[in-house]
Design goal:
Layout (H helix, E strand, L loop, with lengths): L1 E3 L4 E3 L4 E7 L14 H14 L3 E5 L12 H15 L6 E4 L3 H9 L4 E4 L8 H7 L4 E5 L17 H18 L7 E4 L8 H9 L2 H4 L5 E3 L5 H7 L7 H13 L4 E4 L2 H18 L1 E4 L4 E4 L1
Parallel strand pairs: 3-4, 3-10, 4-5, 5-6, 6-7, 7-8, 8-9, 9-10
Antiparallel strand pairs: 1-2, 11-12
Helix pairs in contact: 1-2, 2-3, 3-4, 6-8, 9-10
């Protein structure tokens, strides 16, 4: 399976790690440590050394209750980082829902638009559709960042998420965007209860039937804290465990903060799967598919 993006055709035959670069002063996960362009670029370089396959740069926090950021401010945060990051030799994604930001980062050479609103903001879908090959991540979000956890979804969220993502992808294809440019994200933590988030993990296969690659974004999320009692800074091990479980259930892009540890865990997982492909049957000296 290939994910076509602006400059790269990304091979998704194995899970790929998308390293998170928060160019914001109020990120829930790293407290604004990479809020300047210089520090954000250094972080990009470190993530690549740690094993990131893709960089995802964001200039607006979307944690529950976070205020919206003005367009000029987001551009000031993101553009200097993207301008340099596109020379690092890997696909560059930008986490934004504003069409003006999408257009400017694509003009700078960014490869992927990662949109929590799934291109529902006016003007966003035409920007992506007008580009000849950029990749796009369509995410499910209930309500908006300001209110999503104050009134999360009710009932069985899996069929609702599936229906939303299917309709969003089909609407984009109707504008001329090829299927191989689209990745889907169930939106862990975006307007869902703890139980609903884990239902989306347990039943992730239901989303795979749509035929699009899946992105899993569990890194340091509050649901991990709910089941472990750990604060954000302590959630490395639960985050890696959730990423590995998502990969086991078919996710092909893992959106993570802790790239090095996730890469190490994937290396073990992949080594096991190599041996699993043709396991010898010691009973009759034959081989059978795992």
């Amino acid at each position: 399976m290939i994910w076509q993006t602006a400059r790269f055709a990304i091979d998704l035959s194995r899970p790929r790690i998308m390293g998170i670069v928060n160019a914001t002063p109020d990120s829930f996960s790293d407290g604004g440590r990479h809020a300047t362009a210089v520090s954000a670029l250094r972080h990009c370089e470190q993530l690549l050394r740690d094993g990131a396959d893709i960089l995802d740069i964001g200039g607006e926090s979307t944690r529950p209750g976070s205020p919206a950021v003005a367009l000029d401010e987001e551009l000031a945060r993101v553009l200097p980082v993207v301008r340099e990051a596109v020379h690092l030799g890997v696909p560059v994604s930008v986490d934004t829902y504003k069409p003006e930001v999408m257009q400017q980062v694509l003009d700078l050479g960014a490869d992927i638009v990662n949109d929590i609103w799934a291109l529902r903001q006016p003007g966003a879908a035409p920007v992506v559709a007008a580009h000849p090959s950029c990749g796009v991540v369509l995410m499910h979000m209930h309500r908006d960042p300001q209110t999503m956890q104050a009134a999360p979804m009710e009932g069985d969220c899996v069929p609702l998420v599936l229906s939303f993502l299917e309709q969003s992808a089909q609407a984009l294809q109707a504008l001329g965007v090829k299927m191989n440019r689209i990745v889907l994200d169930s939106g862990i933590g975006f307007g869902k209860t703890v139980e609903q988030n884990f239902a989306l993990l347990a039943r992730q296969g239901a989303l795979r039937v749509l035929g699009y690659p899946l992105l899993a974004g569990w890194s340091r999320k509050s649901s991990l804290g709910a089941v472990t009692g750990l604060e954000v800074a302590e959630r490395l091990l639960p985050s890696v465990a959730a990423a590995l479980l998502a990969a086991e259930r078919g996710a092909r892009v893992l959106h993570v903060h802790d790239v090095r540890e996730t890469a190490q865990a994937l290396a073990v997982w992949q080594a096991m799967h190599v041996q699993e492909v043709h396991t010898p049957d010691i009973r009759n000296n034959k081989e059978y598919p795992a």
